[in-house]
Amino acid sequence: MRVELPGGVALGPGKAALLEAIGEAGSIAAAGRRLRMSYKRAWGLVEALNADFPTPLVESSRGGAAQGGAHLTERGEAVLARYRAMEAKAVAAIAADLAALADLARRDVSHGT
Amino acid sequence: MRVELPGGVALGPGKAALLEAIGEAGSIAAAGRRLRMSYKRAWGLVEALNADFPTPLVESSRGGAAQGGAHLTERGEAVLARYRAMEAKAVAAIAADLAALADLARRDVSHGT
Questions:
Q1: What's the domain count of chain B?
Q2: Would B110 be classed as within a structural domain?
Q3: Which is it for strands A58-61 and A69-72: parallel, antiparallel or unpaired?
Q4: Which domain of life is it from (chains A, B) (predicted)?
Q5: In the Cβ-directed half-sphere of B58, how many Cα atoms lie within 13 Å?
Q6: Is residue B111, in this structure, part of any structural domain at all?
């Protein structure tokens, strides 16, 4: 789901998946590959996320032993966890109505051709 | 919110708004104008909706006294009501997490420039 936060900050499935993949893969490039996202796009999204929040969500180290490595900051972990919690609650909250909508869309196979 | 129902049926804010506007305005053309949607697009969405469900959601009468008139069928009313109920429950379910995310995005003005 896509949400708009005050200040024009938008969060959706793409950014959440990227944060999650960076946390798991330990690098922006690897996270991008995992999501079949270009390196340029992955970096662009990280830069946008970092600029949107008061402190960065992703920290990268471009040199030294951890060259190319990246990790989620405490705020990055918190944002991702809240987003996932929100998503899970939304899914649970709409389950009954979604099932009812699916019933309304269902063609009754017992009376089909 | 946008949901996918079994059978590849997609429902989102645009189609819901169109159903609602048709129910209120009593014609597809008037509903389209209200939503600043082209006549062609409004008709296309209605045709897609009607094809997606086992019985039509919108009935139009192109001739006679009710020329150009359209109304929601019982199924159309049911789909719209379920969609709106679902949306309301999702909004309520995510309120707390959304507020927490907004806090994470907030720049603390008391320490600002």
A1: 1
A2: no
A3: antiparallel
A4: Bacteria
A5: 32
A6: no
Distance from CA of A94 to the nearest CA of B (A): 5
Q: CA angle, A99 as apex, A93 and A101 as ends, to 5°?
A: 105
Distance between A53 CA and the closest CA of chain B, angstroms: 5
Mean pLDDT calculated for residue range B87-113: 86
Residues 6 or more apart whose CB falls under 8 angstroms from that of B111 comprise none
The residues near B73 (Cβ < 8 Å, ≥ 6 apart) are: B55, B56, B57, B58, B59
Tokens of B73: 């069928």
Q: How does pLDDT run across A45-81, given as a tens digit for each residue?
A: 999 999 999 999 999 876 655 567 999 999 999 999 9
Token duo for residue B64: 């006679």
**B10 in contact with A, Cβ within 8 Å:** no
Task: Name the residue of chain A whose CA is nearest to B49's CA.
Answer: A105
Output the furthest CA–CA distance in chain B (Å, rounded).
68
What's the CATH number where A56 sits? 1.10.10.10
Structural domain of B59 = 3-105
B13-25 helix and B39-52 helix, angle to the nearest 10 degrees: 100
The letter for the amino acid at A56 is P
Q: Which of residues 39-78 of A touch B (CB under 8 A)?
A: 52-54, 75, 78
